[in-house]
Amino acid sequence: MEDTGKVFLVGAGPGDPGLMTARALELIATADAVLYDRLIPGAALDGARADAILEYAGKGPSGDSVKQGGIEARMVELAESGKSVVRLKGGDPFVFGRGGEEAATLAERGIPFEIVPGVTAGVAAAAYAGIPVTHRDHAAAVAFITGHEDPTKPETAIDWPALALFPGTLVFYMGVKNLPRISEQLIEAGRRADEPAAVIHQGTTTDQQTVVGRLVDIPELAVEADIQPPALTVIGDVVSERERIAWFEQRPLFGRQIAVTRARAQASKFAAQLRELGANVVQAPAISSRHRSDEAVAAAVEEVETFEFIAFTSANGVEAFFEALERAGKDARALFGATVAVVGGATKDALAAHGIVADHVPQRQTAEGLLDALAGVDVTGKRFLLPLASDPRPVLADGLRDRGAEVHQVAVYDTVVEGLSPEQVAAVADSEFVTFASGSAVHSLMQAIGGPEALRGCALVSIGPTTSDALRAHGLEPTAEAAQSDIDGLLTALLKLA
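Request: output the structure for the sequence above.
Response:
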């Protein structure tokens, strides 16, 4: 029999992936199995091993709930088979998460376990709504109460008179459906009817919605705003601080759904910037790049020292070229003596990461702009190496040849169309903004979604003239075009449009 494994009861935080602890991420990345709840951050499982067992073990208002006894039996079964198990729970395992019950079961069965606390929604959702649960001027104490219990049942464990007299903030978890009774019970027991109150839906996420009122009317206001679970209610004078310190919902792109069509490897930084500004980002990688290692690439690398000029037109080209250099046992020293030109800022940065400073960077970051940047350079009879995609625009090569250069093009990577799931296609179509960082992304997305009709209601943001022309080729007019053809320019254009 295998040695008994170990179970980690891990808090995943309230919804914002950035609030997951380092320990939680570390354990998810190494676990043999993850049993996860319904209300965990959307990206919580991204770091799990490809061979890990990922099983839903959540509870919800619909019929998809898993019985608590079944969850505990499954934890025991996996651990007894020798596996490292993460029981991933929204918020904190010991704050209305039934973590205490699960830990007790593990202890009874002699299974090693560890508790990894998480950021609880009662603190985090309030903070993201601009409500401090304690405050020197308003509250020296805070009480966390489950709102899921029916306050009218005889066996209630909630002491309503004591809560009404509690000298601090009341935070109710999971109580949106019982809010009318909660309000009524507290007021009947002596709590001020005009005390400030707030209901926070999907706290710490880009879907966060906050309704503010008084204890007496907050149930009605929540209904008018169509607040649905999950939601959290805060009652106390601390709610008045929201007017001054609300921050999360004030970000320039808060709640705006934006589709990013870049290849996944390149999109992460841009997507992170959008999320920092409050956007709900839809990852729709219409393209990916696949580095080539054929004879043509090997031949170009073999004679790289013979070229007087090397021009890179994309960061993908830089990465594929340097990978080919490495395969050949060479490095950046192979470019010694060559004049190096790039098409734009992103390509320049990719090159700099390999220790090469570009000699020519055009102000207009297109192939045409690069030709203009080289206008004062005598290229007659000079040998140019252009490491490109397998389907390049001919503008740069033709322009250099027209000026007497000897141009050698080599396809160092292929642009591959990514298939999108029906859910991704629907999410793109529902986006307020769709961003495009290349013409190839435009053509590939059209192929993935079956044509331009799905984008008719979206604002289309293009990185530059070439990408805009690609949109027009499909009968779509860009809503905005970046003045500077790089990701910073794309972001600036989007912010101006928003």
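The two ends are 61 Å apart (CA to CA).
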